[in-house]
Task: inverse folding
């Protein structure tokens, strides 16, 4: 019988001829990602469990991003805990200020198509953009993987999402994934894998696919997979082996649900306060006055996002009472956006440009908002209290929409 | 069969991890420092009112959002004995089991229950509320093993020959 992409990856990883949804199996981790917020807790649990070595230090990547640079005195404790742990157990892959974990894991080549990857952040689903099975876990499970190299998983059912055709010029992959989350609901893909295919998806850049895989968790998905192609191979700087080339859903694979879309039917949308699945067409929100715009995050802080924002804001100014904050997803993106002039355009328009990091997206540093304020943001969550107080209204949107709103001072 | 009775706090659908414990408190030194902020964006008064042995009943998708394990740890530290919801988000579910916080999926109780009332839970069997029985299904074997070991940390200590 045919297999879905996730079934192929788990079969290969476990050495079984085939696996079926519902099977509970133990997989080996090809790579793990530890982020700064969780590090002291991971170290405590690892020690408490009584391990004396890390199973494979070269498969471990430690990334400081939520607390970069530190904004509270205790934040330093996390750096120290990470550095000491890395030194003690021979972990070489550490990024102290290079960018957001999910951007770095793919950009720096830590993840290859067909890999099984775990990270201590829910948006670890992002690496599905290159055809990897990747998902978020807690710090106790991460500590156990660091000691054993393995973790139990339940083979998920798969929802197939087919998108055919050409998108309208102002519609970005963010609009697509928001609409899909709206259709599935915030728990519509819980315990399931999403599999994206169709000509629209094939035509997309890796960055655009990354935005969609990143947000799959907002529908509860365990992972979100794209078939690796030539673009994937170039991005990962690898040649696809026969296994990696085989990572598409078989014609006779079994799906629990199939959604089919025409690309031409997608329009610009927003997720309205305070649920990710409360999706509304931008045209129905027009005129809503805003206080801040945020363009950045692991969802939408890549070069194509910043270029799009710069294109929209070229020759324009940010509305007088609006703060536009732009955060490139990584140092590499920062440098590329500088080299191509996108940052100059954004700065000239009045943007506040920050160092790469997670601080603003999760309301931890820089740019937090207060009661009654309204923000249009390109990140992935609009939860109550996420970017400041619980009386802040967060509207999630694409970089193109966000930039247009910044110039207008209202939703447009 | 393990059985207990507790007072119920009722929360809604999609209670996300930012509500359970906001990011700004995640880097506090210990769970005990964090627990006073539990559920603060939604109900700032709640953490101080929860007593040991209380039970949370909620709607769909409890624990959605981030992978922060502080969420189930804070709930456990507040004294909550178990959470009964229509459904749970995946990462929160695993994190709770690994910390020995009991979760039960039950489709109907949430629609009937009122906050402040008492229910009696019989683990892996049913929940009794005002004379009515609400059935709950049992957990898969591998999860029961983790819970029986007293959580994942203890299971790993056993593996490493420490306990």
Result:
């Amino acid at each position: 019988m045919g297999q879905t992409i996730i079934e192929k990856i788990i079969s290969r990883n476990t050495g079984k001829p085939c696996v079926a949804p519902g099977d509970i199996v133990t997989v080996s981790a090809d790579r793990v990602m530890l982020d700064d917020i969780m590090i002291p807790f991971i170290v405590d649990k690892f020690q408490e469990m009584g391990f004396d070595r890390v199973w494979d230090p070269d498969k471990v990547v430690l990334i400081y991003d939520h607390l970069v640079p530190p904004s509270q005195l205790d934040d330093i404790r996390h750096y120290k805990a990470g550095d000491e742990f890395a030194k003690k157990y021979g972990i070489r892959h550490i990024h102290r200020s290079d960018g957001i974990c999910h951007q770095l894991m793919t950009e720096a080549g830590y993840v290859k198509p067909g890999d099984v990857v775990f990270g201590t952040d829910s948006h670890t689903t992002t690496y599905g953009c290159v055809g990897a099975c990747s998902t978020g876990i807690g710090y106790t499970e991460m500590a156990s993987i660091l000691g054993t190299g393995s973790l139990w998983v339940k083979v998920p059912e798969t929802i197939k999402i087919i998108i055919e055709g050409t998108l309208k010029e102002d519609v970005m992959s963010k609009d697509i994934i928001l609409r899909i989350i709206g259709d599935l609901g915030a728990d519509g893909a819980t315990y399931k894998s999403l599999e994206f295919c169709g000509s629209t998806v094939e035509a997309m850049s890796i960055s655009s696919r990354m935005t969609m895989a990143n947000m799959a968790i907002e529908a509860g998905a365990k992972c979100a997979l794209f078939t690796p192609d030539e673009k994937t191979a170039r991005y990962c700087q690898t040649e696809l082996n026969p296994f990696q080339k085989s990572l598409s859903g078989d014609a006779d694979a079994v799906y629990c649900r199939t959604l089919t879309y025409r690309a031409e039917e997608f329009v610009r949308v927003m997720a309205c306060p305070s649920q990710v699945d409360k999706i509304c067409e931008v045209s129905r929100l027009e005129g809503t006055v805003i206080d801040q715009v945020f363009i950045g995050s692991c969802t939408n802080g890549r070069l194509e996002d910043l270029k799009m924002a710069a294109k929209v804001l070229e020759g324009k100014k940010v509305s007088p009472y609006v703060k536009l904050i732009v955060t490139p997803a990584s140092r590499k993106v920062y440098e590329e956006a500088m080299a191509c002039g996108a940052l100059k355009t954004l700065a000239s328009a009045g943007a506040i440009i920050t160092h790469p990091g997670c601080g603003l997206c999760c309301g931890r540093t820089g740019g937090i908002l207060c009661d009654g304020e309204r923000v249009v943001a390109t990140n992935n969550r609009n939860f109550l209290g996420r970017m400041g107080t619980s009386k802040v209204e967060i509207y999630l949107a694409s970089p193109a929409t966000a930039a247009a709103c910044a110039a207008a001072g209202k939703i447009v | 069969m393990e059985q207990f009775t507790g007072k119920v706090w009722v929360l809604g659908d999609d209670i996300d991890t930012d509500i359970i414990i906001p990011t700004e408190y995640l880097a506090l030194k210990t769970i005990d420092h964090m627990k006073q902020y539990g559920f603060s964006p939604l109900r700032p008064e709640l953490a101080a009112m929860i007593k040991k042995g209380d039970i949370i009943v909620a709607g769909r998708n409890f624990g959605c959002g981030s992978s922060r394990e502080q969420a189930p740890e804070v709930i456990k530290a507040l004294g909550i004995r178990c959470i009964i919801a229509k459904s749970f988000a995946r990462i929160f579910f695993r994190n709770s089991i690994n910390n020995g916080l009991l979760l039960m999926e039950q489709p109907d109780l949430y629609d009937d229950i009122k906050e402040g009332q008492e229910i009696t839970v019989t683990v892996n069997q049913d929940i009794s509320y005002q004379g009515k029985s609400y059935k709950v299904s049992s957990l898969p074997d591998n999860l029961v093993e983790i819970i029986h070991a007293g959580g994942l940390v203890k299971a790993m200590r056993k593996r490493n020959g420490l306990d």
